[in-house]
Specification:
Length: 329
């Protein structure tokens, strides 16, 4: 099978297509033939080993896991002998979790892992990005305990995490203020945002408004700047694992009422949460936004685009459905 492989950290050009051995499912595993995946900022971060802490997770000098891609949609091709929940031919979507592996034509997943039937009303390209919604779900429901009537500001509301975050915050009953650029104002309004701030025209930290929760979905603000826009007991949540926010978490845990919280959603993904996401999608309450599509052969171009930091929603990787696949190089 073909996979996008990298054997050293660096720019997108470190990625190259390579024939690798097609995996075989063990007793409690399923083999999924990929029909769509995505390129996300975490993919790019692991490719670059930036921040440096990634090297402690994936190899100090060179990557131990050389195939990226955490989100997917596809068709079950084979199942292990102990699997009863899935059968060959089932259409599924899901997440590989921190081990990645979805930038390949096949991937192995635990049958009891973060995988579920694909929403019937979504294409594979739409469904591939949908597990990204697990990130804002974890931040908003588990960390912020967001309640109906509370106010939340989502910074980076037009990105993949942000677009799902706006929709989930509305589902949880919050009053949502979205921060994005001029060209994405109407998009985030269509997703349910009650108010939109165009960051090219004004700084949300200088407006004088106050929020119960600020969710920095792109890690481009900071607790120090955002604190002035929080209510006295407000929470600042960020997806960016920086040294500064780590110190702020320790400090605010002991002093002051406003809190900084860094979350690692990838380590808290659950099948039952993915099923909730599936149900919301099938009910028309959660949609995927697709910015660009690239075939697997153009994975380098996809990474270059995501590196620019201005993608809207998902950048999707597609797989040729009728290509003859090889078992090994």
């Amino acid at each position: 099978m073909r996979a996008a492989v990298f054997t050293q950290y660096g720019a997108p050009d470190v990625l190259h297509l390579q024939e690798v051995e097609k995996p075989t499912p063990k007793a409690n595993e399923i083999l999924v033939r990929l029909l769509a995946s995505t390129v996300t900022p975490p993919d790019c971060a692991f490719r670059q080993a930036d921040p440096f802490i990634i090297r402690f997770m994936n190899g100090l000098t060179r990557p131990k896991n050389g195939i990226l891609g955490g989100l997917l949609s596809g068709e079950v091709e084979a199942v292990g002998p102990d699997v009863t929940a899935f059968k060959p031919g089932d259409l599924v979507f899901g997440s590989t979790g921190p081990q990645f592996g979805a930038h390949a034509e096949y991937v192995i997943l635990p049958a009891e892992g973060v995988v579920a039937p694909k929403p019937a009303n979504m294409t594979h390209e739409e469904a591939a990005g949908l597990p990204e919604a697990l990130t804002p779900l974890y931040f908003l429901r588990e960390l912020a305990h967001l309640q109906p009537g509370q106010t939340i500001l989502i910074n980076g509301a037009s990105g993949s995490v942000g677009t799902y975050g706006v929709q989930l915050a509305k589902h949880l009953g919050a009053e949502v203020t979205a921060v994005c650029s001029t060209k994405n104002v109407e998009l985030v309004k269509s997703l349910g945002a009650d108010h939109v701030i165009d960051y090219t025209r004004e700084d949300f930290t200088q407006r004088g408004d106050r929020y119960d929760v600020i969710f920095d979905a792109v890690g481009k603000s900071s607790f120090a700047k955002s604190a002035r826009a929080l209510h006295p007991d407000g929470l600042y949540l960020t997806t960016a694992p920086t040294f500064a926010v780590g110190l702020q978490m320790l400090w605010t845990a002991r002093f002051g009422r406003k809190k900084a919280i860094l979350g690692f959603a990838g380590f808290h993904q659950k099948k039952e949460d993915l099923i909730l996401i599936q149900e919301l999608a099938e009910a028309g309450k959660l949609q995927s936004v697709i910015d660009r599509r690239y075939p697997l052969e153009q994975i380098v171009d996809a990474h270059r685009y995501v590196d620019q930091g201005h993608k809207v929603g998902n950048v999707v990787i597609t797989f040729a459905p009728n290509r003859p696949l090889q078992a090994a190089a």
